[in-house]
Design a protein that fits this description.
single chain, about 325 residues, mainly beta, Tachylectin-2, Chain A, six-stranded antiparallel sheet, 22 strands, globular
């Protein structure tokens, strides 16, 4: 195991971060953060942002940009709002969306956290235009968060990465499969939170949706460490098998992206970088990574897919089968 690894240059922050804050919003909001991201057919970028209102409840609102960096056009009113009359699991808001285009269906799958009286669960909505949404309701019950689809079906079934948890217990990353987006099974742990003094001890979860590469599914995941002054949310890397994504091939021991700038250190929850969306730019290598800073704003970093793969090949450790961990 390499004790010291090279992280410099893997992620480059946009010089004018943050790119979106509550001050940009056309209606009152406490904070704007944790945005799902996608590129539309015309090449423009859409962010579906979590917007927390002045009650503390969240909804989702779309912002669009030609270059994915600036000159954002924001929907004048919320894009997707809680509907607790029909979906009682949304009574305390909806938040933290991830967006994946399902080419087979010609639709975007938006997975998001619904806050029910029983805790947070995973809900799903399908859309083709981010104006009309076909809600599928809660597909994973509480307590569960941090979900995203794979864009294609491995072995003929839809696959979803998610993070079920039991309050007070360690939280790990799982995968589940479905033939129809409604019925889910074949639940398997992919990645376990480490114990002890590790940066990802106690609780981990998927960050942005997986990036498909010829070598496997590249996963950026967040790890949470409890410190004397609070929690630290940082990002690490893992690589999953293309056809059997429940099989983790490599996992990095060290975090690769963490809070350093003022807008990441100071906010509603200080010490947080939380990636929830990415777009792949023309040329197929550059990633635009959108993340929440300190639960207060949306920021942008860039990375090279090849660079991230080089790092995980060099510093990642072969991953033992989960079954052998018990």
């Amino acid at each position: 195991m390499s004790v010291v690894t090279e992280r410099a240059g893997l992620f480059t922050r946009f010089s004018d971060n943050p790119i979106l804050t509550a001050n940009d919003w056309p209606y009152p909001a406490n904070s704007v953060f944790n945005a799902g991201a996608t590129r539309l057919q015309d090449g423009s970028t859409l962010l579906l942002c979590r917007v927390e209102d002045l009650r503390g409840h969240s909804h989702l609102c779309a912002a669009r940009s030609e270059n994915g960096i600036d000159c954002w056009t924001i929907d004048p009113c919320p894009t997707l709002t809680p509907r607790p009359d029909t979906y009682p699991e949304e009574i305390w808001g909806i938040e933290d969306p991830r967006i994946v285009f399902l080419r087979e269906l010609g639709a975007y799958a938006v997975t998001y956290t619904s806050w029910s009286r029983g805790g947070p669960g995973i809900s799903l909505a399908l859309t083709t235009d981010f104006k009309d949404f076909r809600r599928m309701g809660m597909v994973m019950p509480p307590h569960d968060k941090d979900a995203a689809f794979l864009p294609r079906r491995p072995n003929g079934h839809w696959a979803m990465i998610h993070r079920p948890s039991t309050p007070g217990e360690d939280s790990h990353i799982w995968i589940s499969y479905s033939p129809d987006l409604k019925h889910w099974g074949q639940h398997r742990i992919i990645l376990m939170a480490r114990r002890g003094a590790w940066w990802d001890s106690g609780k981990i979860g998927l960050s942005c949706p997986l990036v498909e590469t010829p070598e496997g599914w590249l996963m950026i995941y967040h790890g949470v460490k409890q410190t004397a002054s609070g929690t630290l949310y940082r990002q690490g890397l893992a690589l999953l098998d293309l056809e059997k994504p429940e099989r983790c091939l490599l996992r990095g021991d060290q975090w690769v992206f963490g809070p350093e700038e003022h807008y990441e250190l100071v906010g509603d929850v200080g010490g947080v970088v939380f990636l929830t969306g990415y777009t792949l730019r023309d040329g197929g290598d550059t990633l635009y990574l959108y993340y929440g800073g300190a639960d207060k704003c949306v920021a942008l970093a860039t990375a090279s897919t090849r660079g991230l793969l080089d790092w995980i090949r060099r510093y990642g450790e072969p991953h033992a089968a989960i079954d052998s961990w018990f």
